[in-house]
Design a protein that fits this description.
Layout: H1 3-37, H2 49-52, H3 57-69, H4 76-84, H5 87-98, H6 103-109, H7 114-135
Length: about 140
């Protein structure tokens, strides 16, 4: 690979990473707006009985609801590619791009090294690129 091909490849990679960050940022904004619009009311009658005995049933119920719904993407291809990632990589990308935490905060939250967070982010982005490149030509 000559110098020109390598610089073109690096430029494409940088453009894709920028596009992915913007797409995730916009998806996060849309998700937050949706949550603000749909302020769900949970009535006590709707709480499952197994949560009544817990110390804080409302918190557990809300946590279960939010965990099951997950993050919603505008682009179906990106959503499918995102869900092919391992749970840990999904969690790391969500914390970095959706919750806008720093890699240091993410490392502290999941009890791992800062280097591990960077490696997982890098591997996840590479996997997303590969998945989108494989099935992306006909959808654009």
């Amino acid at each position: 690979m000559n110098h020109q091909e390598k610089s073109e490849r690096d430029e494409l990679r940088a453009r894709f990473t920028g596009w992915l960050e913007v797409t995730l940022y916009r998806a996060k904004l849309n998700y937050v707006k949706k949550l603000e619009r749909d302020k769900g009311i949970v009535y006590v009658d709707e709480l499952p009985e197994e949560l009544w005995a817990s110390e804080n049933p409302e918190k557990n119920w809300i946590q279960r609801i939010t965990e099951s719904e997950g993050f919603q993407f505008e682009e179906e291809r990106l959503e499918k590619a995102f869900h092919t990632l391992s749970e840990q990589r999904q969690e790391i990308l969500s914390m970095l791009f959706v919750e806008e935490q720093t890699p240091k905060e993410v490392a502290g939250r999941i009890s791992c090294s800062l280097r591990h967070v960077y490696k997982q982010r890098s591997h996840a982005l590479k996997q997303l690129r590969k998945m989108l490149e494989e099935g992306g030509e006909d959808n654009e």
